[in-house]
Design a protein that fits this description.
By secondary structure, the chain is an all-alpha fold. The chain is about 60% helix and about 0% strand.
Length: about 240
């Protein structure tokens, strides 16, 4: 297979533009920007936590929507977008930004399907592969968090901060050779389109406001604990598996 050869990476124009800017700007600014970009201050863990907090915020009357409904739309969006991602990288595998990555990280391709599945299930790896798959799987989760906040929370600066984190991740990825910039661009566009298409899963029209005389519903702490436990397990699987 060609991917086990040391293929040269493709030209990434965003990466080239950022390097060109670094030659124009004062070196003091460049050094500060590079230190900021190299430090992963906002990654998939923090954005997943933000998404989960939005789901449970209904317990504290922060949103006028169902936590189940919001998370249903989020999970549906991630699922459909990752199916599109699977189709994309099955059609075309890009050369890794790091030549020789396959030889360092993966065993030789087995000659039978039996050995292929045995290796897949017995030699599990974490922290991703060689970052050659269109579209970025991490970026899909990155984008769902601000979309959910923008749609259902819609107040304050929370969604703006999350969008800033997405922009930071999209700029950081090509600089640190984590992904091509096209992977990040397509993740933002496709995930946003799927999110708006999935409005049928749970609409963003606010529910009827509860009258003060009606009182609040009793807290279902056992159910809340079960939901948090399931979300924690799912988050661990996603994070440990490299998304």
């Amino acid at each position: 297979m060609r991917k086990y050869e040391k293929q040269e990476p493709l030209q990434d124009n965003v990466e080239l533009a950022l390097h060109s800017m670094s030659r124009i700007l004062p070196q003091r600014w460049v050094a500060s920007l590079m230190r900021m970009l190299m430090k992963p201050w906002m990654e998939i863990t923090q954005l997943l936590i933000a998404l989960i907090l939005l789901g449970v915020s209904v317990l504290f009357d922060q949103v006028a929507f169902s936590g189940f409904g919001m998370m249903t739309r989020a999970i549906h969006t991630i699922t459909v977008t990752r199916i599109i991602r699977t189709g994309a990288f099955m059609c075309t595998v890009l050369p890794s930004q790091r030549p020789g990555c396959y030889e360092r990280r993966f065993p030789p391709v087995p000659k039978s399907w039996t050995k292929f599945f045995v290796i897949g299930f017995t030699k599990m790896r974490a922290m991703g592969g060689c970052n050659d798959l269109v579209i970025s799987g991490h970026a899909i989760v990155y984008v769902v968090a601000p979309l959910a906040f923008q749609t259902y929370y819609g107040k304050g600066w929370a969604s703006s901060l999350l969008w800033a984190a997405v922009a930071y991740s999209c700029i950081r990825a090509p600089i640190t050779k984590q992904h091509y910039s096209v992977d990040m661009f397509l993740a933002v566009v496709v995930t946003a389109l799927v999110w708006h298409w999935a409005a049928w899963a749970y609409d963003s029209r606010p529910w009827r406001q509860r009258h003060k005389s009606e009182g609040a519903d009793p807290k279902q702490w056992a159910l809340t604990g079960l939901i948090l436990s399931v979300l924690a397990v799912v988050s661990f699987i996603i994070i440990a598996g490299g998304a």
